[in-house]
Structures are given as structure tokens and as C-alpha cells.
Design a protein that fits this description.
144 residues; alpha+beta; two-stranded antiparallel ribbon; 7 helices
Length: 144
């Protein structure tokens, strides 16, 4: 039987689910045309992961979220939120007030993703001394 990577084919709907003997298999992020690759990029990109991590703490307005995600531009946060909303990870709720109020929160799927991201973030933060030592060793070998 062929592997998923060997059988991943685009379908007429643009989806890249593999099909072996008539059965749909899981998506394959390693296949160029698989839509899961785009979602992975949205989730693991700098602003996507930080935005999902920030939203794990609750519902935020745009400017509150922008302050929490230090360094993100208004344009990048807006693009990130649109991508995450399109992927079903973030819910955008516009209140019909003057001025308009827009709140962002994680969907149940987004909460699951953010919990996994926060585990990775905690791991990285907890091992930064090791990383900094490794960088120092590496840089020391390059300076010769």
C-alpha cells in the first residue's frame, strides 16, 4: 500500500486529501498542495502563535490584543486575525455600537491549538538557558 505522501493528490474541490482504495486519509502537511500546510503556517508563524497564545487568556478588543502581542503592527495583527478566523480558530464579534466594538476570542478548536502552543512556549522558555549556552558555544566556534 502506498503512503499518504505518495498518494496525495489535489481533488476537484482543491482539497488535498489522499485517497487509497477509495478511502479518504488524513491530510498530509508535507504535500505541497495540502490545505493543512497553510493552516500550519498561520498557527506557527510568529504573529499567529503569539496571537493564539494571547487569546488563550480570554476575549480581547483589537487594541488590547495589539498591546499584548508586543511588536505586532496593526496591519499584521489584522491579517493574522483574518487568517485565524478563516481557519476557524478565532471568533470575531462586532457589536453594533458607536463607535463599533469588535471582540476576538478563541473558538473551541482555537483553544485546543493554543493549549498545545502554550505547552511549546513553556518548554522553550523553560529551556532558554540551554539555548543561550548552545548559541554561545556555536558563536564561539564561528569566531575563530
Amino acid at each position: 500500500m502506498e503512503s499518504v505522501a505518495q498518494t496525495a493528490e489535489g481533488t476537484d474541490s482543491g482539497r488535498s486529501a489522499a485517497c487509497v482504495q477509495g478511502k479518504d486519509l488524513a491530510y498530509n502537511v508535507f504535500a505541497r498542495s495540502c490545505p493543512s500546510r497553510g493552516t500550519l503556517e498561520h498557527v506557527t508563524g510568529r504573529w499567529g502563535s503569539l496571537t493564539l497564545g494571547a487569546l488563550h487568556d480570554g476575549t480581547f478588543r483589537f487594541n488590547e490584543l495589539r498591546r499584548r502581542v508586543d511588536g505586532v503592527s496593526e496591519k499584521m495583527l489584522s491579517q493574522t486575525l483574518h487568517a485565524l478566523e478563516r481557519d476557524g480558530l478565532v471568533h470575531r464579534e462586532a457589536q453594533p455600537t458607536n463607535p463599533p466594538r469588535v471582540d476576538y476570542r478563541l473558538t473551541p478548536l482555537g483553544r485546543q491549538v493554543s493549549e498545545r502552543l502554550l505547552t511549546l512556549i513553556d518548554f522553550v522558555e523553560g529551556h532558554m538557558d540551554d539555548v543561550l549556552e548552545a548559541r554561545e558555544r556555536y558563536d564561539g566556534t564561528r569566531e575563530r
